[in-house]
């Protein structure tokens, strides 16, 4: 990405070659306001289309995306530098999520009767989840299709219009997604993309007509976005990356664990919010695990299995973390010389103190720290001692024990005997705790995130002598109510 100070456009560039991929407008406050205005009208039209028609349109969009997967993957490759195959994989995942959201929106959000109790026996109660209106999506560059589509697809399925501000590193992908959507929904601008730098995102977050912001990016920017949203009491869902731990228990399949660990850490050059960054290995399998990891890592090289670092500024962070780790720990693979801009070869360092920035801060590069632990309990305690809490991994042959550890892991998601698998299961919610953010995309929770519950109670008949919400209520009615409530709730159970 290159910008000239007075330009009203900016270029997206191929991070591997520096070539200009495309030029896009830096959309102003006024342009964002106009887009939101159009979206407000489109939102009403889209909501009125109803569940069945929206489902058809979204399934059609899914088909368009699928048919365009190859050309879109090429564009993702050009703007991010990642291999075309990896780009295609994220598109396939986005397609499966869109399919799930389209097919399940009505079931999850549509009107349903809910039960009443003995005290409200004369009532009928219904619950439904209504669209919010306009949803603003602020997206990242690391998975420029999969990540924003996790918000966009679910927000659209819930009946909202979307205004999407892609990262300044991947504007072309953002623009293309909205273009493809128009093939399925040409009547109204239900899904628009606005391009620009952080400022354009700030205009979107600050517009009071935007009813929710779905943000993916750094914790620091999430705080700024949240502060802007606070002005209008606009709720946000924040997905802010992590420092995910990978635990290898004593009974793990060591070869499989090493293989998964390597891919989870190095694929996409480590630029994955749920990528492996910290590895804790139980003493009993430490040596065989490290041997397997070293052997497998030896064949992995930047520019071959994975691409360059997309955001040039990130190279400084990665370099700082590698330097800190190399100074205080024992380098197993690579080292400071692994940073050869715009590429970074795999780096593995063991015995890095837990207070090192390499262990505490998000690196977002193809590097890991590995530490030997007494047992899985110690590994879990170290894993949980992080301000982040996005995801994590546990390798163990004992499904019960692994599930127990997964529950105790302070994270929104945990994969057992696989990495990142939760992201590929559309029914599972995606999101974190602590500095990793809050709120959920994907699954039923992801649909509800972009809707507001509407509760309706209807009195079917009056109960004689039990008009509790009237100034005519007397002591006798209150006595009857207390007797009834004591009968229902007053018995102590052990
Ligand atoms: P940012 O958090 O700065 O950017 C994320 C998105 O927010 C981009 O679209 C960005 O636009 C936009 N933005 C920036 N400033 C504002 C603002 N004031 N108001 C509204 N929107 C804004 O992340 P970066 O891309 O700079 O990456 C920095 C670090 O964040 C990475 O090194 C990584 O650690 C982490 N990260 C985590 C991701 C995850 O998956 N959770 C994804 C990406 C990054 P623009 O690009 O135009 O600045």
Task: Describe the overall structure.
The chain is α/β, with parallel strands linked by helices and 494 residues long. The protein has 15 helices and 22 strands. The radius of gyration is 26 Å and the shape is globular. It has a seven-stranded mixed sheet with strand order 12-15-16-11-10-18-19, sandwiched between helices. It has helices at residues 29-67, 69-80, 84-109, 146-157, 171-184, 198-205, 219-230, 254-266, 283-297, 314-328, 357-360, 376-384, 399-408, 443-449, 475-489; strands at 9-13, 20-25, 112-114, 123-131, 134-138, 161-165, 191-193, 210-216, 236-239, 244-248, 276-282, 330-333, 339-340, 343-344, 347-350, 367-373, 388-389, 392-395, 415-416, 433-434, 437-438, 451-459. The N and C termini lie far apart (65 Å). The structure holds NADPH dihydro-nicotinamide-adenine-dinucleotide phosphate. NADPH dihydro-nicotinamide-adenine-dinucleotide phosphate is lined by residues 138-142, 165, 167-168, 197-198, 201-202, 205, 216-218, 221, 224-225, 239-241, 273, 311, 314, 362, 364.
């Amino acid at each position: 990405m290159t910008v000239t100070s007075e330009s009203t456009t900016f270029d997206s560039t191929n991070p591997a070659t520096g070539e200009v991929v495309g030029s896009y407008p830096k959309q102003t406050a006024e342009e964002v306001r106009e887009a939101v205005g159009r979206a407000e009208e489109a939102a009403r039209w889209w909501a009125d289309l109803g569940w069945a028609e929206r489902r058809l349109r979204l399934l059609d969009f899914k088909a368009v995306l699928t048919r365009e997967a190859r050309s879109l993957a090429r564009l993702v490759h050009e703007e991010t530098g990642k291999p075309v195959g990896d780009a295609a994989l994220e598109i396939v995942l986005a397609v499966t999520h869109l399919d799930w959201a389209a097919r399940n929106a009505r079931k999850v959000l549509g009107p349903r009767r809910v039960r009443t109790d003995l005290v409200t026996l004369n009532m009928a109660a219904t619950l439904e989840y209504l669209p919010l209106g306009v949803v603003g999506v602020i997206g990242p560059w690391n998975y420029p299709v999969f990540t924003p589509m996790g918000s966009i697809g679910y927000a659209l399925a819930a009946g909202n219009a979307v205004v999407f501000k892609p990262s300044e590193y991947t504007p072309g992908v953002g623009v293309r997604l909205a273009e493809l959507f128009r093939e399925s929904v040409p009547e109204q601008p239900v899904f628009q993309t606005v391009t620009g730098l952080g400022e354009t995102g700030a205009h979107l977050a600050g517009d009071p007509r935007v009813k929710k912001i779905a943000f993916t990016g750094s914790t620091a920017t999430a705080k700024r976005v949240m502060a802007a949203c606070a002005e209008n009491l606009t709720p946000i869902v924040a997905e802010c990356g992590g420092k995910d731990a990978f635990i290898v228990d004593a009974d793990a399949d060591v070869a499989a664990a090493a293989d998964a660990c390597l891919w989870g850490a190095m694929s996409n050059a480590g630029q994955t919010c749920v990528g492996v960054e910290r590895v804790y290995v139980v003493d009993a399998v430490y040596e065989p695990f490290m041997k397997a990891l070293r052997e497998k890592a030896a064949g992995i090289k930047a520019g071959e299995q994975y691409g360059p670092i997309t955001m040039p500024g990130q190279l400084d962070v990665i370099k700082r973390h590698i330097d800190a780790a190399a100074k205080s720990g024992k380098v197993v693979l690579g080292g400071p010389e692994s940073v050869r801009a715009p590429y970074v070869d795999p780096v593995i360092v063991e015995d890095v103190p837990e207070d090192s920035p390499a262990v505490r801060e998000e690196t977002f590069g193809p590097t890991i720290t590995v530490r030997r632990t007494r047992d899985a309990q110690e590994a879990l305690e170290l894993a949980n001692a992080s301000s982040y809490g996005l995801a994590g991994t546990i390798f163990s042959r004992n499904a019960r024990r692994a599930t127990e550890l997964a529950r105790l892991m302070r994270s929104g998601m945990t994969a057992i005997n696989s990495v990142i698998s939760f992201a590929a299961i559309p029914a599972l919610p995606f999101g974190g705790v602590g500095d990793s953010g809050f709120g959920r995309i994907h699954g039923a929770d992801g649909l509800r995130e972009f809707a507001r519950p509407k509760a309706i109670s209807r009195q079917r008949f009056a109960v004689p002598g039990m008009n509790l919400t009237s100034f005519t209520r007397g002591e006798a009615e209150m006595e009857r109510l207390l007797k009834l409530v004591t009968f229902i709730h007053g018995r102590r159970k052990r």
